[in-house]
Specification:
The chain is mainly beta. 0% of the residues lie in helices and 56% in strands.
């Protein structure tokens, strides 16, 4: 049985000096739940992706959604329809939970 209980996301996240190290907490035919972290100055380049919800757990930075720069801080939630072009830029260490819907 795979792990389903995560009492502290900080124990599940990995920050990489060479870029993001996503942790897939759950994957199925219908959805992927991803815990991601970026160090200050790192980024995820803009790319089109499936329908998704991003919730930022800590840090400050920017999420680029279809060319619009949106300020993100701990507590920010962004929802996006299928095909939305998105990216993330970290000003400080950033952690987020993303749910991609297939």
């Amino acid at each position: 049985m795979s792990k389903t209980y995560f009492p502290d996301w900080r124990q599940e996240i990995e920050y990489g000096t060479d870029g993001p190290k996503p942790n897939f907490l759950m994957t199925s035919e219908k959805a992927k739940v991803i815990l991601g972290g970026l160090e200050a100055g790192q980024r995820i380049p803009e790319h089109p992706e499936a329908e998704a919800v991003y919730h930022f757990l800590e840090g400050e930075g920017w999420m680029i959604v279809d060319g619009e720069r949106l300020r993100v801080t701990a507590g920010t939630t962004i929802t996006m329809p299928d095909g939305t072009v998105r990216g993330v830029e970290a000003d400080t260490r950033v952690a987020f939970l993303a749910v991609r819907i297939a």
